[in-house]
Batch of 4 targets.
Target 1
Amino acid sequence: MKYRPSHTPGIMNPASHILMFAVLMLLALSSLLLLPLLPFSDAGTADAQSRVRILQSDELEGVVAAEGRIRKLTGNVALSTEDFTIVCDSAWHYLDLEELRAWGNIEITSERDQIWSDRATYDLVSEVALFEGRVVMQSEKALLFSEEVFYSFVTEIALFPERLRLEDDRGVLVADSGFYYNALDSAVFRGNVQVSDSLQYIEADSMFTRRSDEYYELHGRVYLDDQENRTRMTGGFVQADSTGYRRAEGGSRMRRISEDLSDTTFLWADWLEVHQKDTINTFSAYDAVHIWTESYSSLSDTAHYDDAVEQFILEGDPRLWYEEMQLTGPYILIQLEEDSVRYLESHLNSFAVQRDTSIDRLNQITGDTLYVQFEDGTVSYMQVYPRGNVLYFVKDSDGQADGAIEMTADFIKLLFEEGELVDVIARRNVDGIFHQENEGISEKRLSGFVWEPEMRPQRPDMPMEPRLPPVPDERPFELPRRFAIVDGVANRGTQDSQD
């Protein structure tokens, strides 16, 4: 073949982009330690012309331009390299630059991938390609869409500098940019990351994921909606995997709706962990733990919940509020029954305060172990043992304040009806005194008294809602002509699909 002088058409020189991709790829590999560094293929002494084998072309022309020798192929072009076969409308093979450029209706097929695009530039030495226009990549486990993609056929790593969309058998992921590690089915995404599938919805500023393992590391303004378990979670960082484990850090918050949709629990803390197995949930929250429900609220250093037994355990100077009662102690157990409080139990220097709203006075009970039983959502009785101490205010026949009784005993039980104290039972080593009504008696306090209604957590005002619009059902562009979907699978080589 003879070559004649020619001018190169005004197309973008991708050298700088390919260099950027190589640098970014090395940074990503070294920081994430995901893959060993693999050498690019050696240029060696292989003949430049033999690197690209012509399988078909309506027209072939050899020219010489400023870039050196060029083979121009036009019309129904089919070529092959060591990495892939390509069909397209036209292609130029720059023999001296060892570069292949293709245009129009491109379809590339390799051992593990299939790629469609409008334009492509392939470096035969580095084996890195730049795809532009309507780019669709079909890997073994995912289908990806973008308008610009760098791809290394050696490391099987794709760089997406532009907005991308990933689809697999579980759902859809979109982001402003990212890396996709095809061999490991792993990816790093940045900017307005969203994941939507049948069981959950996720938002974050950035994400690392192994989709096949359902493993995620989410960073920055994280929002996770677990629709199957009626749980929403937010935080600065969230880790999640297929075992049902969730870890949220950086001002984490969680909202959980009861199975019958009648009750909502809000929890916020510095960080928390959630374990989900089938329909059973357990979680632990740490550092400045706040809990709010319609019936009770609490503060503690740590909180543990087990769905199997419907129990909360609060530790680390906890405080619990239920209607007009406050309970404090180093350990508080909340026993639920169908999301309603059945009983409370506190150990070691426990202290309960119950406000009698009719006379605005504070009944007090303290001791080693304190137990509070509920019926139909109100306090039924309190009991304390051993060596309990109680101060309760009495009323006359007109319901007016009429002094107080202070008592100690090995066992003390306070009975309530409709939230009002109606009787006190004391047993063994009973000792007590009656305090006449007098000015200042309402301020009488037992040792260890704690009453802090101003610290009671309130329902959060900030809604736990997505900040981004929903993931669109539509793909980002009209599909390339050679790309078709038949029964949900990319059909290789189809040429008469959508324009």
Target 2
Amino acid sequence: MRFHETHDAEKKKRLKRTAGIVLAAVLFLLAGLCVFACIYPAETWKYYFSNPKIEKRNQGELRIHFIDVGQGDCTLLELPDGRSMIIDGGNGSQKTELAVMRYLNALGIDKPDFVLLTHPDSDHAGSLDALLKHKGAKVVYLPKIEDRSINAEYAEFCARVEKSGAEKRVSHAGEVISSQSAEYPYTLLFLSPKTSDNPDCEYNAVNDGEYDETDVNDCSAVVWLDYFGVSALFTGDAGKSVEEKLLAQAALGVLKYPNAPAFELSSTEILKVAHHGSADSTGLAFFGYLNVKTAVISCGKGNAYGHPHADTLKNLERYGASVCRTDVSGSVMITVSPDGKYNVTTQKE
């Protein structure tokens, strides 16, 4: 009889200890949630769940993330000096907004150093309003386009920039961002649009009041990035006329800027294909001038525009470029190492 009493007493003690552990865990979880709620407003909680799994960046690596935002563009640069840049933000749908914000949180980026809107199209400006509202930015590069009524997304972006307190800069050729680390030097150079004092400035066609979609696309910031000899070109929706101007400048030897180191556009190995691979961009002459080994196309699955166009894919194939498409492979990450090599990984490998 004493055996049963002892056994029951020990069983009760175990149950009591278990209940205490469970209660402590619940209280700890509640305390954690309270702290989380104090730091992060309730409207942002959705950005911290179901985040993508992304391995930590190694010392000295530069990473380029082409985020899958459906029919739109969003590129994230993790620079080797610890800074970051967002180039465009997708179309502003709830799905896209979640994708962008969760990607940033997965990388632990609380406040991007640079935000660049290449041009006003809604499928580029869309989610930047939410990004600036909840994370802010140190510096925002924006197009010098006065008509904010081009679309609602551009108007919201411009209004949010004013509220954000970020430093505002206009995208134009010759603007340079250089590494803050002597050990890991990189150069990020704006090649287009031209400066506003140039009569051939791409902004003029839009700001003069009569313009079409091509004029707006040609205002896209075109940015060249180099890290230990690996070069990448980001093109927004710039069309063939912009490509022809860059080629003409390169041929004349005037594609150089006083505050930038010497560079060769023809060394470009990584290309963010312009305008989602449409037939209006990435002409054969331009692509033939570059040295592209990896081409990335950001577009939505089954999109209504037929992107990417068959002719663009043929041009890429003709010169032997490896093509990554977000509509096929999901988000694409390119990691550039200080040894001058890079590798490509995709979400749906």
Target 3
Amino acid sequence: MYAKTTLPSGIRVITESMPAVRSATLGIWADVGSAAEPPERRGISHVVEHMLFKGTSHRSAREIAETMDGVGGNLNAFTDKETTCYYAKVIDRHVPLAMDVLSDMFLRSLFEAQELEKEERVILEEIKMYEDSPDELIHDLFIRTMWRGSDLGEPTIGTAETVSSVTPQELREHMRRHYAPNAVVVTAAGNVEHEAFAELVQRSFEEFTGSCRLVTPESPQAAPATYVKHKDTEQAHLVIGAQGLSVREDRRYVLAVLDTLLGGGMSSRLFQEVREKRGLVYSVYTFQAAYREAGLFAAYAGTSPENVRSCIDVIAEEFGRVRDERVSAEELSCAKEHIKGSLTLSLEASSSRMIRLGRNEFALGRDVTPEEIEQRVDEVSADDVQALARELLAEERLGLCVLGPVDENVIDRQRFAA
């Protein structure tokens, strides 16, 4: 079901066939994200992403939108810290049209000054929207606090100052520096045939030549710290965590189990202790921020300002319990089945499979089958989980961020670093 071809130009074409569906999702990936940006150009990868929708030498922005809407397709893109992806989901017979639109955007976007001026205003509104979403903002505050001084720790969206100062020439230069065949992967999942799709990519990118220096993944080490930011919100939002594992780390399957049993569902320890038993939150969970050479692992909770200290205490206690007590066979089995079930359900969507193809290629250079994942998850032992918890969640490694109408006095200075 998985196939990979490297074209003469250096572009990698990867497909996963799903003959039982009528859809296909295809994506063009560039091996660059916000972690490759200098401070004065923070957010430029995201600006490029926006501008590729604003018109080419063949189509106006309206024509791009109308072409995809006219076949019921979905056209979108995303920028993260290490990659940028432009993708489309269409009925299988419209794959050639979707590739024509995507490659046109990728190769022939104009970056007109007038369009850039308008799109910068759009992105400034996006930044304001983000600032008004404290449950999202707290995650970036935590990453920046733990990885302070690194490019990987800075927000992908950039700042109002850096976004407003970008010029069309700088956008073109960014693409010349990072968008070259050896840094591009084209993926497709759904009702596609590999050889035919590879030929389609070859024709669509015939004019795309050259090479570029690939970005070296950054590997910052977490420096535990505490950061409290006052913000006039109804809830206070907090994240507690530490250095985690990279997506290349072999123990990532152990961390997946630890993540699941601590905060991965309604039966998880944090959900039961913080929400069900004490009624302190609506939302509480654990998460991983995992990249090629670095990672963070943490717990999030949103609660009333007067309950912040209680939330922190309960989460820290649960971190301590998973460090000090061996997880039961029943709880371990439940976490494993949760991971495997969630994986299987996600694979029913061609878009999820397309994204998996791209991320696995950049992170690992190979396909990781569901069968391999299930086997590695099944191999995780209770001793593995406890050993990793002792390593990652030691008290001296923990950092804390709080955002909301709270003051510094909510922090137990004996437990968390200044």
Target 4
Amino acid sequence: MIEFPKDFLWGSTTAAYQVEGDNSNSDWWEWEKTKPGIASSGAACRHYQLFREDFNLAKSLGHNSHRLSLEWARIQPEPDKFSQSEIDHYIQVIDHLRSLGIEPIVTLHHFTNPLWLSKIGGWENPQAIQYFLEYAGKIVKSFSGRVKYWVTVNEPMVYTYYSYLVGEWPPQKKSPVTANKVANNLVDAHIRSYRLIHSFYKENKLSPPMVSIAQNMIAFIACQKSLRNNLAVYLRNRLFNFRLINLLYRKRCLDFIGMNYYTRHLVDTRRWSLWELLGNTCAKKHDTLPKNSLGWEIYPQGLYYLLMGLKKYRLPVFILENGICCQDDNQRWDYIREHLKKVHAAMANGVNVIGYLYWSLLDNFEWDKGFAPRFGLCAIDYSDYKRTPRDSARKLAQVASTGLLEE
């Protein structure tokens, strides 16, 4: 039997745009209307109306923490206007979590932007940093000590990659120069908002906050050992997984490391070119591991390798997302169980992991993939929005409630 610490944080994650519905002031909402074949988020999971039901459900599943995001486009519908009613809504959300004994982990930016910001260039425009700071400052002041854990930006490298490098997400640009500019602006926004949050807590004599980003990490594995493949693995690991963490660590702008982990990439390069070294994966069907319904390989060992790579920072590590979309719920529980075993193994080897959040509490709108991928601990019937906990949710609840996992 594996035993986790008594104060371990157990729970799940949601993102506002993916569950709330009707975020009509967001850039994604506008983009959905213009792209044939792209699903509309519409009412999503109606979490905006049903958040109490959802968090009561989380409590019944043994969760003592929950990561959520705020929809910036709701809170600041115009450049010079904040909506007090929307701020009050999110205060109610946080207060309800607190009333249930669930620790809120609040994300300020989870991929979506106010439509007005996108119309002036979004994160390409350096003004976005100042606007983000005004938004962050308004939120931190409004929440007034209700939140200990803050995530400023979710997966900045993923956002930059899909929106500005390969052009699959809005604004669908394909420019390494622009992507680098956006990434730098997001990093600057984190650093400055990190300092802003800490200053506010200090000035108001509040207990120090814990502030980080959510960094998506991938296990890069060479398909076949060769000088070129080994170099490609090294470069991707350094640039995609650790470059941002190294930078923010040196700037002393991380109180913990927020980590998202799902899968591995089997690296197979065929030429000595930068794109090959940084982009190619195996096309020879050597990826024989089980996969989720999006084709992502299931590789729990990768989580262990990456956690051990984070040990050198001597910071708490919080797994903010780890999950699977699948039709077979037995596969979901296998995924959770095997990844938790690797988490515990890393902890036994000195990594200070403080919590595990499953993605996601609910089936939801999975961006350009629509509603087909089912990641939820709780199934959603989109005809009537009924929530039904899956067996995997109840098995995870047993672990969360007891701290014990069968080997």
